[in-house]
Amino acid sequence: MYSFIVNPNSRSGEGRNVWNRLRSIMESQGISYQYFLTEYVGHATVLARRISAAGTPEDPVTLVTVGGDGTIYEVLTGIIDLSSVVFGFIPVGSGNDFCRSMGLPFDPFEALRSILENRRTIFMDVPVLHLGSHSYRFGISAGIGYDAAICQEVLITPSKKFLNRLHMGKLIYLMVALKQFLFLTPSPVTITLDGNKPQTFSRTWFAAVMNQKYEGGGFKFCPNASPEDGLLDVIVIEGISKLKMLFCLPSALWGKHTRIRGVHILQCRNVHITSAHSLPVHKDGESGGIQREFSVTIEKKPLKIIMPVL
């Protein structure tokens, strides 16, 4: 049986419409399934904990998330034992960085077909963000500074719902990115990789710990990142003028920014990041509040992901 966690509010309510159509398809095929609609922030974590409790490594449950990238971290955080779950994802969001990086279908109906066939799986590394006394798993990235400031403001911007309904969700990210670009002040950031000697980067725009190649709705910040290599990729952009940033960010859409001086790509198994000033933090594009430091590790057990047939 398939267990679905559905965010009906993803893409400003489009999630509910898509889910109703997905249900009709499964009903017509006689598919055995159960589903749960999220009702509040953090509900997906509660639901994932309840569903995953029924699985074992020998007999895992198939848990499918229907929503945007931000729903992923909630579901991952709730899974009790990663080896007791086979994970599927049906995208109904505006960013779609998880699908873009993993090579999953962007179309929700094609994604459902791939999941029901379940003919190919891979094991994905699952990073853990340690933030104060709390820990959160994530699938894509966690970061501090400019990228997190954009995520945080987009979540509270009233025009997001309106633009999403018009399928112009990326426009709000562009508007907020320009605003934050004008007003954000870079901060010194100290990064410690695998417990080695700390490295300090002056005037840091942002630092992001990546499990995937893409974040921010299509920016290929870590072109060589792989969710299967047991490593975290860390991007730091520092010491770059605003004029230079105007060239750096667009080039990141194609992963060409790595040639620019001031762009650093690092690899590690665990990382600790400290900022001289309190800055916004995000996990999979969802707000982690205003923080000065956090660390990221990788779970010992990977997660089995349902993939489309090559």
TrEMBL record:
Biological process, per Gene Ontology: phospholipid biosynthetic process
- GO molecular function, a single term: kinase activity
Q: What does the UniProt keyword field contain?
A: ATP-binding, Kinase, Lipid biosynthesis, Lipid metabolism, Nucleotide-binding, Phospholipid biosynthesis, Phospholipid metabolism, Transferase
The record, for Pfam families, names: DAGK_cat, YegS_C
- Span-the-membrane segments of this chain are none
Q: What does this protein need as cofactor? A: Mg(2+)
Please give the InterPro entries that the UniProt record associates with this protein: ATP-NAD_kinase_N, Diacylglycerol/lipid_kinase, Diacylglycerol_kinase_cat_dom, Lipid_Phosphate_FormReg, NAD/diacylglycerol_kinase_sf, YegS/DAGK_C
Per UniProt, residues of the DAGKc domain are 1-133
Q: Which family does it belong to?
A: Belongs to the diacylglycerol/lipid kinase family.
Record's protein name: Diacylglycerol kinase family lipid kinase
Biological source species: Blautia massiliensis
